[in-house]
Amino acid sequence: MSHTKLVNNMKNIIITGGAGFIGSHVVRLFVNKYPEYNIINLDKLTYAGNLANLKDIEDKENYTFVKGDICDFEMVLELMKKHKVDGIIHLAAESHVDRSIKDPFTFARTNVMGTLSLLQAAKIYWESLPEKYEGKRFYHISTDEVYGALELTNPEGIESPFTTKASSAHHHAYGTEFFLETTKYNPHSPYSAAKASSDHFVRAFHDTYGMPTIVTNCSNNYGPYQFPEKLIPLFINNIRHRKPLPVYGEGLNVRDWLYVEDHARAIDLIFHKGKVADTYNIGGFNEWKNIDIIHVLINTVDRLLGRKEGEDLNLITHVTDRMGHDMRYAIDSRKLQKELGWEPSLQFEEGIEKTVRWYLDNQEWMDNVTSGDYQNYYESMYKNR
Ligand code: NAD
Ligand code: TYD
Fold first, then answer.
1. Class of domain 12-226+256-288+324-347
2. Residue ranges per structural domain of the chain
3. pLDDT exceeds cutoff 80 at 154
4. Which of 2 and 30 is assigned the larger pLDDT?
5. Whole-angstrom Cα distance, residue 244 to residue 238?
6. What ranges in 210-241 are assigned the alpha helix state H?
7. What phi-psi label fits residue 180: left (phi over 0), alpha (psi between -120 and 50 degrees) or beta?
8. What number does the ligand 2 atom closest to the CA of 248 have?
């Protein structure tokens, strides 16, 4: 079918959730790398959206910010018509598991209904064009959490059978199973249930209407501009200010960490070269027990602040475990490496050092977020435009 042709002349692209953590890295990469593309960042600016994340590119000719809710179907359809949009890279979502446990409705609304609203707007607009779906792309960014949780069969860690440039020097795997693209969906949290549902809708739009969709499922990201409710930025900030570090349960849960810019590079590659209707898992074979990563954070912050290394280990405070806390995530990304030649660029030890340095050097960014001041940035920047 013609619509399975690779995209090579994509010009007008909506990136949703571009003011968030991963989205801001994707917007920056596309705006800088593709001056011939028009990049439209559609973001509602919820508590997680921060335009200060994009200060360095906000005046570029090929960048437009639109404040809007992806659930607003009419607005999305008008936006697609106005900008003659031929590609959507969809990152907007409610993304924090703990919030989803408290308020699942918001997650169903944005992650499920919001995705459906984008899909339906894209369908109506693209089907109205003479070329229909030719040269179009709907790329949905998802998570490994839709696959559920893996068992911790090797709590002390074994030599990982696979590595990438991103793998930590310790090369540990904490079990023998990994999430493959074919792994059955088995989400546990309201967050992952909503993401799973949105993934199904995206695939249904390909299977039913022939929309050229792609879905990718990535492991935990770390790096600059992450909202400090997630483990790594929260703990770096708390260590700096010598506040308690709330470790859920024993801290034995395992996450597979990838530097955010390596995720953004994968998204660029897959958006342009990925096979329509396909799924790619993204991850660097880099598993860490929470408690071990927390030790690395304490040692690194202390060293960089000229404190005695490990001086702040006493901040570790074990608190009640998260409800339904998934034990282990571990992505098998060999398909992406083999088929599209993706390789992460940054080894974990380098990446975490760079990340800690960034948060310590950008205390103003952190203060604006923790004080809530970042929410006035839109008013001051865009009110006269
Ligand atoms: P984030 O919470 O930092 O950012 C989400 C962005 O979406 C914010 O800018 C927010 O304002 C915007 N948004 C929320 N609701 C919206 C709505 N209704 N309309 C328009 N915009 C809205 O999230 P993130 O960590 O950058 O994650 C981005 C995407 O990547 C999500 O889809 C998430 O599921 C996925 N993902 C995240 C990770 C991770 O480790 N953070 C890993 C794999 C996949
Ligand atoms: P998080 O950054 O919320 O990502 P996710 O739940 O999507 O993997 O949490 C990473 C891990 O850290 C997870 O196992 C929960 C744990 N955690 C804590 O122990 N304490 C905390 O304060 C937070 C936010 C997370």
1. alpha beta
2. 12-226+256-288+324-347
3. yes
4. 30
5. 7
6. 231-240
7. beta
8. 19
